[in-house]
Amino acid sequence: MENVLIREIAPGDNLQVAQVIRRVLVDLGVPKVGTAYADKALDDMHGHYNRPRASYFVVAEGNKVIGGAGIAQLDAFEGNVCELQKMYFLEEARGRGIGKEMISLCLQKAKTFGFEHCYLETMPYMEQAQKLYKQMGFSYLDAPMGNTGHYSCPVWMIKPLD
User: Fold this and answer.
1) Can you point out the beta strands (E) in 109-154?
2) Are 146 and 75 in contact (CB under 8 A)?
3) Mean pLDDT throughout 109-116?
4) Per-residue pLDDT tens for 62-92?
5) What count of other Cβ atoms lies within 10 Å of the Cβ of residue 152?
6) What is the mean pLDDT of residues 141-158?
7) CA–CA separation, 16 and 64 (whole Å)
8) Could you give the angle at the alpha carbon of 141 between the alpha carbons of 140 and 147, nearest 5°?
9) What does the pLDDT read at residue 1?
10) Which residues touch 72 (CB under 8 Å, ≥6 apart)?
11) Which of 7, 25, 148, 160 could serve as a FRET partner for 53 with CA atoms 20 to 30 Å apart?
12) Mutual orientation of helices 98-112 and 127-135 as an angle, nearest 10°?
């Protein structure tokens, strides 16, 4: 991870973060509706995560944002569960251990916020991501939790935060 900086999102990162997420989703052939592509928060990620028990981190190489991931309360769910959100990396960031580092950072932050479980949603063909999630202690669920609005993401996973 030489020359890579992981830090909390700043207001000036909003445009680059939105571009990274949309580019990755388009490159992967993910539907634009029912996924993060259509999220209203995408164009103001700093503002969206600037609230209690929420954080978003970016991966920067020089002045270029090459990825990011966040943690926040799971929407429309009664319980102490957070969601790993909007974890996307440009191709140049993949295979460098950055995903594992970002998940670890997000899970540690979730623990400091007092969450008991971490939930995530993904796509069936994102096999490398699922492999990483399993390595990090996530297991599959039979049904979604909460209401993220990502009805095009039919793979659900959860991890206890102990």
Assistant:
1) 117-122, 139-140
2) yes
3) 98
4) 999 999 999 999 999 999 999 999 999 999 9
5) 16
6) 93
7) 8
8) 125
9) 62
10) 49, 51, 53, 54, 55, 82, 83, 85
11) 25
12) 50
pLDDT score of 30:
81
Residue reference for tokens 């039919």: 154
pLDDT higher than 70, residue 53: yes
> Parallel, antiparallel, or unpaired: how do β-strands 81-89 and 64-73 relate?
antiparallel
CA distance 65 to 38: 20
How long, in residues, is the chain?
A: 162
Domains and CATH numbers, the chain: 4-116 (3.40.630.30)
What are the tokens at 29?
């052939």
pLDDT score for 140 = 98
Q: How does residue 133 score in pLDDT terms, banded at 50, 70 and 90?
A: very high
From the CB of residue 119, how many other CB atoms can be counted at a distance below 10 Å? Answer: 23
Write the CA distances from 84 to 12, 64, 103, 138, 160, integer angstroms. 22, 23, 8, 11, 13
DSSP state for residue 143 in the 8-state scheme: S
Q: How far apart are CA 133 and CA 154, in angstroms?
A: 15
Dihedral over alpha carbons 136, 142, 148, 149 (to 10 degrees): 130
